[in-house]
Specification:
With about 190 residues, this protein is α+β, with helices and mostly antiparallel strands. It has helices spanning about 5-15, 30-40, 60-75, 80-90, 105-130, 145-150; strands spanning about 50-55, 95-100, 135, 160-165. Helix 2 (about 30-40) packs across helix 5 (about 105-130) and helix 3 packs antiparallel against helix 4 (about 80-90). The structure holds flavin mononucleotide.
Amino acid sequence: MSEEISTSNLIELISGRRTIHNYKEGLCPREKLIEAIDLARWAPNHHLTEPWHFYLLGDESVNAVIELNSEIVRASKGDEAATAKERRWRKMPGWFVMTCCRSDDPIRNQEDYAACCCAVQNLMLTLWNEDVGVKWSTGDVIRDKRFYDLLWIDQELETVVGLFWYGYAEEVPKMTRKPCLQITTELP
Ligand SMILES: Cc1cc2nc3c(=O)[nH]c(=O)nc-3n(C[C@H](O)[C@H](O)[C@H](O)COP(=O)(O)O)c2cc1C
């Protein structure tokens, strides 16, 4: 490494990153997202499949996704829940979708999904370092065929890894993790 990142900065970046649920008004510049995607693609990926693709949603696509989601929520939970969800989603500032290449080989599918998750973490940490928060969402809408259709994603070729929101945090939630010893087993 040419320039050293201090351990304390790295600890702060990794442990301080939080999923952001509530955002301030105002968009994070698209260039920051592009920079984060640029770094995301350096994630480890077996056989160098580079399985990820990013769809950056404009107003028209955002609107269509919100309407589809409301329809899905209305069908399962009723009008009130759908209206509340729509109001909430309309407050989300930046939107993008990440997909992973599909393969007939289940092992490759698993490894490609794993690589995509590594890329997401790269992306989230890059943005967090610029005070931009992200939320990774995997609600029902991302598995709906209509979601693929309205974003022009071919379901035969790609799987949606997540719908992501990004922007400046209104509040940063508190979060804990289990102690390291509890998740570690030393073997002889
Ligand atoms: C694969 C994946 C899917 C997720 N989907 C959702 C989701 O649908 N809704 C949500 O509120 N959070 C979702 N999250 C965010 C997690 O809830 C969040 O990472 C967890 O609560 C820990 O919080 P932190 O990211 O601030 O450490 C998802 C995270 C991952 C890794």
